[in-house]
From TrEMBL:
The chain crosses the membrane at residues 38-55, 61-79. The lineage of its organism: Bacteria, Pseudomonadati, Pseudomonadota, Gammaproteobacteria, Methylococcales. Keywords: Membrane, Transmembrane, Transmembrane helix. This is DUF58 domain-containing protein.
Length: 312
């Protein structure tokens, strides 16, 4: 690392380039500055020296030099509170847009010294203390704003041990990211009526006590069964179905059949269909422009569909 890179201000805030390998905290990665308490301590030392000079008081000189020696010794202990720790990335879990992505971080203390008052920060701050030769796993959270890959920002490990006069910190950037699926639509929309949809008729009839779902309005459906919320949002006219319609056994969920005024709304509807179909145990095919997945169900198929929506 050349001199210009060493004194780049971004190193003090964001850390160095993202890495995959474990990071060992050393003199190059640990930064130290006085806290507000430390600056007050400096002012106190300066006042004592001023008093000692004005009144030629040896005891005041001795006290000022004693406090100054404590001040400089604390710098070393502040550095040692972080030095030697090993930080490495863990797993990242996929979430839906708007939820908090979860990032795992592992901190190892391979030395024989106990570490006190450690703090690790992503968006929120977690406090921890580590015994000698121990390992701690921490889950950090960062709120996602939109679908796609959500990159974890700098993870900062810090400490104000032992007297709170200095803050030692080390910002670390890992190549750590979580996939954010589209936010599912809040409104229940009937599955698309595709040519391969197979419907089993039950013994019940429309108007029963148990609500099943929605379908496009058909002439003759009772007006009281119309889903007025969907109509008010301009999504079309749908009627509520009760008892009579049993779950679809196989359907195709396609981008072209998803209602919405823009791409994000249509992906949101598709996401809701995928979730509902999986929960209902229906075999569902999935079609996006340039992608076609044959009908299936189960966790692997479910994840493939959601990942395709996230990366569309």
């Amino acid at each position: 690392m050349n001199l210009k890179e060493r004194f780049n201000l971004s190193r003090f805030v964001s850390g160095e380039k993202p890495v995959d390998a474990p990071v060992v905290l050393n003199h190059r990665r640990i930064f130290i500055l006085p806290t507000q308490r430390g600056l007050g301590f400096v002012v106190l030392i300066a006042l004592l020296l001023l008093i000692a000079f004005v009144y030629n008081n040896n005891l005041a000189y001795m006290l000022a030099f004693l406090l100054a020696s404590i001040f400089f010794i604390v710098i070393l202990h502040s550095y040692k509170s972080l030095a030697g720790l090993v930080v490495q990335k863990g797993r990242a879990n996929a979430v839906f847009a708007g939820e908090a992505a979860e990032f795992g971080v592992q901190v190892d203390n391979p030395g024989d010294m106990e570490r006190y008052h450690l703090q690790i920060t992503l968006q929120d701050t977690h406090s921890l203390a580590m015994q000698p030769q121990s390992t701690t796993h921490v889950m950090l959270y960062s709120v996602t704003q939109k679908r796609g890959w959500h990159q974890a920002r700098s993870v900062t490990l810090s400490s104000t041990y032992p007297l709170g006069l200095f803050r030692a910190w080390s910002p670390i950037r890992f190549d750590l990211k979580a996939l954010a699926y589209p936010k599912p639509a809040n409104l229940d929309i009937a599955f698309p009526q595709t040519s391969s949809a197979q419907v089993q008729q039950g013994a019940g009839s429309k108007g029963g006590d148990e609500f099943y779902g929605l379908q496009e309005y058909q002439p003759g459906d009772p007006i009281k069964h119309i889903h007025w919320k969907a109509f008010a949002k301009g999504l079309g006219v749908f009627s509520k179905q009760y008892d009579g319609e049993q779950p679809l056994q196989e359907i195709w969920l396609t981008y072209d059949h998803a209602p919405g005024h823009n791409v994000e709304e249509r992906l949101s509807r598709l996401c809701r269909w995928v979730i509902d179909a999986e929960q209902a145990g229906i075999r569902y095919g999935f079609i996006l422009p340039g992608l076609k997945l044959q009908p299936d169900h189960g966790l692997a198929h479910y994840r493939k569909c959601l990942e395709a929506l996230a990366l569309f």
